[in-house]
Every structure is written in C-alpha cells, then in structure tokens.
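Hello forum,

I keep getting stuck at the same step: I have a sequence, I want structure tokens, and every attempt I make locally crashes halfway through. Rather than fight my setup again tonight, could one of you with a working pipeline run this one for me? It's a single chain of 388 residues.
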Amino acid sequence: MFRFETAGESHGECLLATLTGLPAGIPIAPDAINHELWRRQQGFGRGGRMKIETDRVSIVSGVRHGQTIGSPIGMIIANADWKNWTESLPVEAGDMAHHKPVSRPRPGHADLSGAIKYDFPDARYILERASARETTARVAVGAVAKQFLANFGIEVLSHVIAVGWKRLERVAAWEEIVEHSRKTEVLLGCVDPATEQEMKAIVDEAYRTGDTVGGIFEVVAHGLPAGLGSHITWDSRLDGKLAQAIVSMQAVKGVEVGFAEEGSQSFGSKVQDTIHYNREERQFFRGNNRAGGIEGGMTNGEDLRVRGFLKPISTLRRPLESVDLETRESAKAAYERSDVCVVPAAGVIGEAMVAIVLAGAMLGKFGGDSLREAKRNFDGYLEQVRNF
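Reply #2:
Ran it on my machine without issues. Output:
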C-alpha cells in the first residue's frame, strides 16, 4: 500500500517523512527534492522563519545508487532554528523555567481545541505540531511522488488565482503555468503580471496594518490517463481523495474540483463537457474542461484542476481578542513569528498533496514491484484505451 507519514515539530530538531509502497527502480534526485523545498519557502509575504531555514533533504533509507529499492523511504529535514529552542523543548525533562508557554490561544488556530483535547495547561505543544512547518516534510514526499509520475509523462504544477479580493479572471493555460514555474524569483505565483501587482498591493496593506491575507491556489496535473480512481465505492473516488488531501493542509478551508461554484449557478447545458473523438489519434476528448478532469470519481483524460481556498494566517501582529488560559481573563492572543501571506507556498504544498494522491492512484491501478513492471502495465493499458 502506498502511504506516507510525517513527524516533527516546528521548533524541534528536524522533520521526518516516511514513504512506503513505491516500486524499485525509480530514479530519485535529491536536488529535485531540494528545489521543491526551496519553492515552498518563496513568495512575497513570508515571515522571518524563512530567513533562518535553508531546507535540504537527507535521504536515509530506501534509495541506493540513485534509485528506489522497494523498501520504505526515510527522509530528514533539519530545523536550523532548533539551536534557539534546545533548552525550551528538550526531549528529556529539562528545566521548565526555560519553557515558553502559549497561554493566550489564537483565534482560528488549533491552540485552544488542542490544549483542551490533550489536557495541556498551555498550547505550546499544540502549536509545535499544528504549525505549517510540518508541510516541509509533505513537500519532500510530494517531490518523490512527482519523480515517480514523471516516468509516465505526468506533471503537476500550481499557480495562484486569488489573493484577498483580487482574482485572476481567466483560465490559465498549461503552457503559461509551465513557463511561470521556471521563474527563479517568485512574487505571488500569479501567471498574469498586472494581476500579480494588484495582489501585491493587498499584501502590502496587510503588512502595514498588522494583518494577514489568504487566497486561492490552483493545482493542475497534466498528462493523466483516463480511468484513475473509481465510481464503485465512496472512498475510492479520486475527487474525494483529492478533496481530503487539500483540506488536510493547514489553513485550507475549502476545495473545488473544476469549476464547481460556477457550475452550481448555471444550467446543465452550460456545465457539462461535450464529448468528441479524434480519429487520427484514436482518442476521446472533451469540448471544455469545466469538470476539472474528473467525472464520476475518475480521471477523464483532460487536465486535472483542483483549487484550495486558504484562509488568512491565524497569527496576527495586531492580535485579536482571546482569553488567558491561566487567569481566564480577557487578553490579546499570543504572537509567534509568522507570515502575512502564504498562498504561493500553499500552491507548492498543494502540488505535493495532489502528486501523492495521483501516485497512489497510479500504483493502485498499475501496481508492480519494479518501475519496469509498472510501466509495462501502464503501456498495456494505454494500448487498450487506444483500441477501445
């Protein structure tokens, strides 16, 4: 079974990720993983933590001589900030005088619910694990999944379509998303420069006022075959798995596959994607892609389009009203070093989650203990599709 897990805390020694179920023989490039980790750290509106960390992966198991060997893959990403927290968050008992409590929970964060659930007197340990720092490990796993998918001609990228109330009012073509992904300087991840400047003005306003701002990112997967996922059971539907993966990301409060909101406000004749056939290529295709590449819980051969709706970050430099957990008196919420806008980074994390789900779907359909076996099964399926 293809699965992954992460471990580690925001200010702990490191983040860890394990990935099981990949076949042997997949070429793995650590530099490609490090590039994805770098992309996650970019974007206008990131906070001071990104100036401290230079995330790089150390693969400690499952890859030898540049290829997977079929055993679990173990990866570690060190936290450079750990040196500032060794006395505050030791593994051993340590001196509680050095503890840094979070006694004024932040509205919108896991602080209060987690402290109540785990019976902690303050929210420090909740913050440490609930932090989006955890997504560093997810991006490392997603980078491995991307390298697996590349062997089948499948690519996964993202771009930002909204920051605050400013939105890109058109559909971005795959080619311009690819071109945008090659940029070495990242502002806000929007493919349209004029729209991006208007987005930047909103982030600037949030900076000035001590506020935060959210937005919408879109993940696009290109080159998928028809038939991944299933209509048979509720938990085998690919759109359901993608929705769970995206909403599992910190601060994401909603997900959209294709143009769901727009479609809900239209007549059916304006929503469904007409079906056509190219005789030369022996291939079915759709007249549009409002479904976002999924029909009936299965891929239909068009580009997969999934959007994540990211709320503004909960930690504000101008804190909101809260209650002190010790005194029960009204107080301003705690402030921890944080970001103003993380929508571009969320897009990179969304890519990772989509790639992980798609890698699982590919392995579920084509299996194989080696990459060569999986590709043989995949090629046989493509031939079956051509002859349908």
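The CA atoms of residues 109 and 314 lie 6 Å apart. If your local run keeps crashing, start a new thread with the error log.
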